Known about the structure:
Layout: H1 10-20, H2 26-50, E1 59-74, E2 79-90, H3 97-100, E3 102-103, E4 106-118, E5 124-135, E6 147-155, E7 163-167, E8 173-174, E9 183-196, E10 210-222, H4 228-244, H5 253-277, H6 285-313, H7 317-348
Helix pairs in contact: 4-5, 4-6, 5-6, 6-7
Amino acid sequence: MYAFDDGIGLLEVLEPMARIGGYRSVADWAVRIVQVLVLCVAVHVFSVSTAPPSIAEPVRVEVGVSFTAVYNIDFANGSFGADFYMWWISSDPAFRPFDTMQIINGRQWSVRAVTRRQLADGRTYTTGMVSATINHYWQLRRFPYDQHTLQIAIETPSTAAELRLVPDPKSMALTEFLSVEGFHVLELRVNEKIEHYATSFGRADASAQDFSRLVLELDLKRKSSQFLVSFLIGFIAANMIALLTFAIHVSDISIRSSMIGSAIFAAIGNTYYMDSALNPAANSLLVDVFTVVSFAVIIVALFNSIIIQRLFQRGRSRLAHIVNRWVFYATSVVAACAYVATFYVLSRGSFG
């Protein structure tokens, strides 16, 4: 038995307190206190076990890009090639981005010169040079005054709840070596987008449908005058040859026929060339107008030659010359107006 300094025992002190609380003895009071403590512990354990699990924040990875080259622009097959330097900064030293990186709209890609090192703040810095062939539908309706936004979409197998790709806008750059044949390079943009898929890819949780996507966008504007004549040289030649048939004497049907045959050959050749150089499904307004007008001029020249030849054979030479002259004027004016109006509409940007 413990005692205080004045000789009074501990039970002698607690006994009056127990009686005040309505208990018969100190033992009953102690039992009740133990029961209360046990109840408190049980409540605490239950609340901890039933509390919702804490949701872990996704790992945020900084990503930067520097374009070095855009090449192999293929209008007919809908693709382009690109080389770009890429870096990733992650707090997870086990994160190897180039092993899991996926270019969603890429046909094929490869990575070289991969390096890894630790930064002063402890994060891991991974760099590499990416070469890729990218699918792209070229909108050529306004050719040769067209503008394009090339897109490269990059993801990883980790969901948006697990990993976020954060662009590093301060370090984005277009290198001095970047040059796109036939185009002016305007601007590079890099943004993150949360892409929602209709499938969870076999995983039960709904978060498996959302992925962090890094979208690279490069704006291009065509150098309108460059290569335009070479693109249309066949149509230009066909128009000139067909119109020159009106200068041939009305009696020289053989010469007219040969020239019209040459014009047809030039127009067909240019049509095949344009189809191979540009996507035929793009429906370029300029190509459509040149094709229609060129063949229309040839057909008019052909029928005009037949008509004036018949008039000449019937002794109506004067009428044949009048018809030849006025048909030439009308054809020239209509063709010139069609071409000028087309270039005007395209250059003004009033045609979508």
